[in-house]
Amino acid sequence: MTDEQERVQPSGVWATAVGVARVGALETERENALFRDPLAQAFATAGGLGPSSPPLPGDEAARRRRLGVAFSIVIRTKFLDDLLQQASASGVRQVVLLGAGMDSRAFRMDWPEGTRLFEVGANLHDSQALEPLVMGIPPIRSRRGPRRRRPAKLHGDKGYDYDHLRKWLRARGIVPRLARRGVESSARLGRHRWAVERTMSWLSGCRRLHRRYERKPEHFIGFTAIAVMLICLRRLGVSAGR
């Protein structure tokens, strides 16, 4: 049995990541490419879809479907690149790339000096996203004194029950209120978490926010602001007994 026969064929999420890398490699070779990814070919080859790989099986209908998927990947990649460039131009200096897979966006794009980049996988554990989340909290204006740049305490469920996270929070002057596995109940956390979860539920009830239709981020942010105002107006009406 040869090495080619022993090679495991990509499947599932792996096949998706390798396929995206292959599409990026083909787009990079085009003269009028919408984007260029110098690492895509190396990723695709390592995943089993190199230039010398045999053509994928399937009839003409399957080939057309793959071609349509490839077009959508190229357009999506170009859209996200433009979106991140606009955000960087507006002053954003912290970017979290979700489910980056084999796209080398963190390396192939020209990021402004001082930009902090975080790549997280699609199945990333909550505890691994805590540090970039806390670091990304913007300054909050207070009634007196300087703006607050960190919370006084942080509540979290048992998914964040790790000693290194407690030490990291304490080193920044944040009191960790993290439930301990097998010791404490998560029921008490509901008093604090429900205030956030119900707000997200209210926002998800808005059609324009539940599924994004806007191309430009400022339009989406504008609809978010309108939704927040409507939610506050309804809550004020309930409190006033109207």
Characterization of the model:
- The protein has 242 residues and is mainly alpha-helical.
- The protein has 3 domains: 1-123, 3-Layer(aba) Sandwich (Rossmann fold), CATH 3.40.50; 125-188, no CATH class; 190-242.
- The chain is built from 10 helices and 4 strands, in the order ααααβαβαβαβααα.
- The protein has helices at 3-6, 12-29, 40-46, 60-89, 105-108, 130-135, 163-171, 190-204, 207-210, 217-239, and strands spanning 94-98, 116-120, 153-156, 175-178.
- The protein has a two-stranded parallel sheet with strand order 1-2. Strands 3-4 form a two-stranded parallel ribbon.
- Helix 5 (105-108) links the parallel strand 1 and strand 2.
- Helix 2 (12-29) packs antiparallel against helix 3 (40-46).
- The chain is globular and about 60 Å long.
- The N and C termini lie far apart (78 Å).
- Mean pLDDT is 79; it is low at 1-8.
Keywords:
globular; two-stranded parallel sheet; two-stranded parallel ribbon; Rossmann fold; 242 residues; single chain; 3 domains; mainly alpha
In summary, what is this structure?
By secondary structure, the chain is mainly α. It has helices spanning 3-6, 12-29, 40-46, 60-89, 105-108, 130-135, 163-171, 190-204, 207-210, 217-239; strands spanning 94-98, 116-120, 153-156, 175-178.
